[in-house]
Each structure stands twice: as C-alpha cells, then as structure tokens.
C-alpha cells in the first residue's frame, strides 16, 4: 500500500477471497495444492516472470490459462507453443484471435495473412479488398493462386477476381477467371476495358460456345460504329442476336450513302440488306423441311428468326428489290464519276452503263426510280456517248427524252446544240453496238421496245453484264432437269464429254420466223430422246425457244399449271443428264446458292442449310423469272470461252470480264462489289 501498487493489492485480495471460498467447499482438500500453484503463477505473471508463470499453470494442469496469459500479452508464439500441448484449444482459434488483434490495430496485411492461416479465406479477401493496404494485389493474387477450385472456394475466388479487376489488376483477374472457367465474367472484363480483340478471340473459341451471353457484342458493335467501322459493327450486331439493330444501322448507312452521293457504298449496303433478308428467312417454315432448333443456342442465333409463311412470301420480293437497287446504284456510280474533276472512264463503258440503266429503269418492274438517281445525267451520258460511238438513233431518243425534262440553264445551250447536230446524222445505230443474245443467237435493238428490262426481246433471257465495264457477256443460263440435284449436276459437268459429240451453236437452226417447230426434225428428235451424235445442249436450247414462242406442245397444253408459260415469258434452258454430260467444265460457271453465301459465317450454317429442300423435285424447275429459289445453284455456260474469259464473284453473285476483275483485285485488294479481301475470296473460275 505504501508503494501504491494498487493492482498488486487487488490481486492479493482476490487470491485471499478465492482461498477462503475454496476452504469452505467440502472437496477443497484435494484441490488445494493445484490452486496454490495457480495463485503462485498469477503472482509470477504480475511480476513479469511469464515463462515461470506458464510452467506453473502447466503443473497445475491449467495450460489454457497459460495460453490465455500469452494471448492477453500478444505473445503469440509462446501462446501457440503451449496451445500445442492443450487438448481443448484449437490452434486455428488462436490464429483467428491473432488476426482479430491485427485487424483492430490496423495491420490489414498481417490480419489477412492470419485469417488465411486460420482457414477463413473469404474474410481475408474481403479485408484486403476493402482496405487495400500496400501490396494487397500481390497478396490477393497469392491467395487466389493457393486456393483450389472446389465449389466452396468459388465465391471467394470470384471475389478475388472482382477486387483485382476493380483495382486495375486485369491480368491477375484474368488468371482467376481462367482458373474458374468463368468465361462470362472474363468477357465482361474485356468489354469494360474495351479489349475487343481478346473478347472476340474468346468468343470465337469453340470451347467457349454457350458459356457467355451473346449480348456482349452489342457494346462491341456500338464501339465499332463510333469508330466508323460500320461493316464490323453490322457483323457484331448479328452475333449479338440483334438483327433489328443490324437492319436499322444498314438502313441508316444506306440512306446516308445516297444523300452523300456515295452510290458504290449504297450498292454495297443494299447487298448486305439482301443477305439479311435471307438470314431472317433462313428458318422460315415456307421453305424449310424441319423445325428450327430449340433452346438457348437458338435463342441467341444471329439474325435467324422464325417467320410465318405469309411473311416469308413477302421477304423474297424484298430480297430481289434490294439486289435490283444494288445493281442500279453500282452502275450509277460510273455516271456520278463523270461529274468529278477527273475521270478515266472510256466512252464504251459510259455507253454500256447508261444503256443498262435506261433499260433497267424503263422496265415495267421498276415502278419507282431510286432516290438520288438523276435521269438527266443518265440521258445526257447516253446521248453524248451514243453520238460519239455512232448509235445515232439511240442518241435521238435520248435527246428527245431530255426535252421532256427541266434542263439546267448552264447545260441547256450545249444540249440544244447537240440536238441540232444529231439531226444531220443517219437514223440508225452502228451494227457493232447492237447486243447479241447468246441464247437465241439474234441481235437485239439497243433499247428494249417492250419495256421488259435489260433482257433479250427474242427469248427473254437477261443480258448478263460485266459489273465493271457493263459489257454484255456471252453467258447462257440453264438449270438441271427435275430429279437432278445441284451436286449431281456438277459431277456430270465435270465428267469429260464423250468423244465425237457434235456441238452446234445454240439457236443456229432456229429463229423467230422459223414457224412451228412441231415439223422440225430436230425438235422431233428432242421428243424422241435424241440421237447418238446430237448436241444435247443445243436441243435443250431449241426446246426452250420453242416453249417461249408458243410452238411447243408443252407450252400449249401443260398438266402442271406452275410450268405453264405464256408467250413472251422467259423460259429457262432445262438440261437433262445427257446434256450435262456433253458440256465442257471450262465453259460452265456455277453460282452457289445465295442463302449459302448469306450464312457462310453463321455458326449453325450446316444445320440451317439442311432445312432447305434441294432435291430439285418435279415442280422445282418453273418457267418464271424467280427461278428455282435461293437454295439452289445457278448454272451458266460461256458460249465464247476461248475469246472471252469470264470471272465469277461468288460473294457478290455477279460476273466480270476476267481481265477487268483481276485488275480491280490488284488495285483495291478486294472484290469490287462484295469487298471480300483477295485472301478470302473463293475461286472465281469455272467449275
């Protein structure tokens, strides 16, 4: 008391009270020595003799009190040493107590380490993520690396990745997501960081199919659009399962391209819109044999929607209208280029493209001239180039049409002067300029007087033009006979023809004034199956011409209304197996089905294509401009293979003079219409 050590006095007083209390107990006699050791240990502990006090607690059988003493003194190593000899104390509880103490004093890293040692990884991760002490990212990365991927640890590992990603440690977070195979979360990380190449590579990995939400491509598409990478944005919207957004962007791009007079771009976008139509129609019940696949994968399929038959029927005309507009805008770009400061266009090319546009836009099928197309410029180009090349009759027509238009004041005087000078020219067109029909073998007038479009007036066969110079190509379209599939037809064409097969020029024995072909011995041979040396392809051509002109009995009476053809409607050349065998493969071009090209990058391409009926059964070959359908190949024969090499762009579905096409590939590095790079362009030669 004199030394004022009041805590010591309190301890002695406490010991005296406890001893008196024990003496009052009937069983106190046996416990007295042990209690004395405990009291002695408490006194030594107060005096700072902690090790001796702990040993005294041990002799008294109270190791727990020794551990408690060291815990209160934060002497953790001594506490752990004595706890190892205790059967009632869990070492993890001691470590947890140590962690809580470090937590209380603000030593977050040490506390997390202790929590981890005690097996409470979730608390360690939460503490590091909330407080983020120095070196926390490395410590959390180590925790994530040491934890197993057991189900009980998944939530903790996901928290690790979340904190690491939030702290900018993307690579460490990526490693955790990969460890967990958390593709969806890893994809979300890539999207937040705009690491688009890695996101696309992750999505393209077949092993990750179905492990992430395809809607991740929506922000990717929006970013691409903001970067003016519109073509890639369209593909991203399709992969996101948002064909509506893809179509909306296509419509905006097309409209803006027309307003800005970028007609080549407008043609390209119309081609893409046509492909979008086929993608939507890909699962339509009107043309399919099987139901569309169910489930989550079908839910996220890009641009494929189930449509009722009525809407399917409305889509195909829209598809053809988009292609029609694409052709017009692609051609009109040549006219627009003439009004630029510099142009390398030749009079022949200007003449052909303006003639194509006049015949196409003047047809009954073209009810509305597309926006941005100037008939004034087309007619002016046609008139001047026709006059230059000697097509004076056509030039007079063009100038007469110009008189019906409101002419600009700056051009009026020149046009009126040209109209006066053309009066001194003969009213005829140069014979070399008249287009020849390679099906009927007869020349056509430059302008179609029947307003049926850019087609032959003798047989209705469309003029197939090179989409660079717009010259008429010597191509004749034909279809395999019913029962012959496209693949069978290709195999027959690739089979070398028999020796001694006689080849005639199609149409050489038939003309518009030949009369009724019922008395023609050639036609009789066709009906009888032909002879050993007959040219089966020419026989098929003559039969088509006979049906077109109404001379064939099949045209007069048909048991199938769908195959009935009125006089003046285009009739396809239908080739039997013998006719296909008689063809040389270096003369034949096969345009792959349009729906196949539209779905060429779709992950379910084979499944969707298998829904189409491509058996070419009876009734598939119809005498109509629509042909057999977008699921079939189209076959063409080059009638002048030695003098007119031709190239076919499968993605664009258009033909070119081979020299022009290859020059364009060298110049631009891609197809002039579809813009497919050279290294991804399919073979553009014959079958």
UniProtKB/TrEMBL annotation:
A Pfam family this protein belongs to? Answer: Zn_ribbon_IFT122
Q: Where is this region: Disordered?
A: 282-305, 500-520
Residues forming the Intraflagellar transport protein 122 homolog TPR domain are 2-365
Segments traversing the membrane: none
Keywords attached to this Swiss-Prot or TrEMBL record, sorted alphabetically, are: Repeat, WD repeat
Q: Where is the composition biased (Basic and acidic residues)?
A: 289-302
The GO biological-process annotations, alphabetized, read as: intraciliary retrograde transport; non-motile cilium assembly; protein localization to cilium
* InterPro entries noted in UniProt: Ift122/121 (IPR039857), TPR_IFT122 (IPR057411), Zn_ribbon_IFT122 (IPR056838)
Cellular component (GO) terms are: intraciliary transport particle A; non-motile cilium
Official protein name in the record:
Uncharacterized protein
- Native organism is Rhizochromulina marina
């Amino acid at each position: 008391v004199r030394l004022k050590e009041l805590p010591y006095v309190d301890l002695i007083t406490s010991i005296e009270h406890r001893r008196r209390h024990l003496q009052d107990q009937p069983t106190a006699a046996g416990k007295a020595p042990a209690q004395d050791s405990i009291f002695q240990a408490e006194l030594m502990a107060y005096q700072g003799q902690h090790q001796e006090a702990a040993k005294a607690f041990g002799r008294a059988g109270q190791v727990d009190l020794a551990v408690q003493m060291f815990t209160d003194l934060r002497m953790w190593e001594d506490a752990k040493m004595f706890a190892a000899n205790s059967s009632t104390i869990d070492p993890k509880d001691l470590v947890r107590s140590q962690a809580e103490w470090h937590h209380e004093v603000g030593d977050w890293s040490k506390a997390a380490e202790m929590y981890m040692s005690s097996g409470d990884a979730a608390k360690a991760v939460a503490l590091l993520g909330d407080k983020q002490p120095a070196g926390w990212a490395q410590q959390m990365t180590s925790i994530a690396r040491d934890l197993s991927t057991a189900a009980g640890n998944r939530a903790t590992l996901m928290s690790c990745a979340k904190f690491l990603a939030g702290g900018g440690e993307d690579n460490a977070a990526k490693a955790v997501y990969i460890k967990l195979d958390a593709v969806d979360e890893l994809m979300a990380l890539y999207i937040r960081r705009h690491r688009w190449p890695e996101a696309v590579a992750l999505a393209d990995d077949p092993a990750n199919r179905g492990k992430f939400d395809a809607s991740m491509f929506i922000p990717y598409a929006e970013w691409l659009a903001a970067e003016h990478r519109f073509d890639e944005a369209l593909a991203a919207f399709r992969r996101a399962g948002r064909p509506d957004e893809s179509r909306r962007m296509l419509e905006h791009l097309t409209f803006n391209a027309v307003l800005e007079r970028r007609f080549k771009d407008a043609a390209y976008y119309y081609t893409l819109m046509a492909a979008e139509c086929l993608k939507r129609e890909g699962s339509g019940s009107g043309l399919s044999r099987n139901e569309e696949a169910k489930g989550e994968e079908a839910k996220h399929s890009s641009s494929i929607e189930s449509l009722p038959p009525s809407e399917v029927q409305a889509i195909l005309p829209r598809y053809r209208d988009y292609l029609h507009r694409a052709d017009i805008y692609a051609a009109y770009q040549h006219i627009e280029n003439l009004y630029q400061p510099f142009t390398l266009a030749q009079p022949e090319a200007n003449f052909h493209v303006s003639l194509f546009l006049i015949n196409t836009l003047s047809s009954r099928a073209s009810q509305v001239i597309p926006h941005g197309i100037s008939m004034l410029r087309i007619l002016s180009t046609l008139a001047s180039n026709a006059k230059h090349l000697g097509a004076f009759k056509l030039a007079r027509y063009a100038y007469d049409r110009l008189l019906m238009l409101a002419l600009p004041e700056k051009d009026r005087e020149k046009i009126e002067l040209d109209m006066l000078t053309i009066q001194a020219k003969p009213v005829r067109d140069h014979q070399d300029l008249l287009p020849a029909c390679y099906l009927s073998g007869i020349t056509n007038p430059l302008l179609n007087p029947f307003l049926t479009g850019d087609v032959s007036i003798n047989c209705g066969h469309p003029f197939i033009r090179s989409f660079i110079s717009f010259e008429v190509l010597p191509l004749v379209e034909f279809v395999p006979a019913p029962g012959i599939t496209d693949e069978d037809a290709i195999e027959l064409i690739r089979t070398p023809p028999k020796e001694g097969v006689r080849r005639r020029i199609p149409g050489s024995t038939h003309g518009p004034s030949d009369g009724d072909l019922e008395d023609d011995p050639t036609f009789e041979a066709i009906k009888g199956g032909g002879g050993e040396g007959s040219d089966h392809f020419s026989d098929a051509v003559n039969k088509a011409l006979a049906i077109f002109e109404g001379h064939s009995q099949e045209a007069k009476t048909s048991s199938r209304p769908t195959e009935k053809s009125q006089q003046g409607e285009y009739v396809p050349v239908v080739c039997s197996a013998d006719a296909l065998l008689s063809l040389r493969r270096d003369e034949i071009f096969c345009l792959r089905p349009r729906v196949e090209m539209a779905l060429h990058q779709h992950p379910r391409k084979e499944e969707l294509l298998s829904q189409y009926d491509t058996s070419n059964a009876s009734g598939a070959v119809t005498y109509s401009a629509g042909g057999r359908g977008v699921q079939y190949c189209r076959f063409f024969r080059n009638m002048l293979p030695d003098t007119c090499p031709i190239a076919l762009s499968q993605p664009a579905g258009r033909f070119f003079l081979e020299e022009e096409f290859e020059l364009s590939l060298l110049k631009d590095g891609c197809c002039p219409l579809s813009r497919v790079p050279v290294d991804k362009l399919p073979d553009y030669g014959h079958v």
